[in-house]
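Supplementary Methods, section 5.1.

A reviewer requested that the exact input to the structure prediction be made available. We therefore reproduce it here, unchanged from the version used in the analyses.
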Amino acid sequence: MLYDSTFKPNRLLVYVVASDTGLAPNVTGGSCTLAVCKPQIRKHAKPESDWIIGMSTSKHGANRLIYASSVDERIGYADYWHIPRFHSKRPNAENLYGDNFNMMAPVRGAYCTYKQGIHYGNAEKIQRNHSVPQVLVGHRFWYFGANAPQLPDSFLDTRIVQGARRGHKVIDDTPIIDAFYSWITETYQTGIHGNPRDL
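The structure derived from this sequence is encoded token-by-token as follows.
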């Protein structure tokens, strides 16, 4: 299936990436996925309308960009597990931080976590993930990780730079969105520009 990922966002969903290990976001297999953590973003993000912006922590520089991604698809855990193009995101010995580890249990259709998943055996995290059993998929993304660049000074007084906080911000201010869109598309090629910061 083809997606037109060149859409200009109507909203930016901005949050702080507290732990950048390659799990959330996961940028293996040619797409950027958010399958665990941030349940409210996974619940409310609008495909073909929103972008997700992951900022660094205050400790590492609150004005640094970990990643930006379009939201092209929202897929249920069961489909995510079974669709072949996402099989490379299943965790294994070489890919410990694969995020495709939720599958349907044989009894009563409940979700269970694949035993090789990073959250296996952690009931609290599993329950939190399964409160919104949806995966966001972006086909147009910029991932910087440990090489997170600083945003231009013109963004420092905007709501994109938010420092240490829980939850996320919704930015629908058109001038801010236009400025961010122009900056990232004109400054960087899409794709992976660094390794995860916290590995």
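The helical segments are 39-44, 77-82, 123-130, 174-187. These observations are discussed further in the main text.
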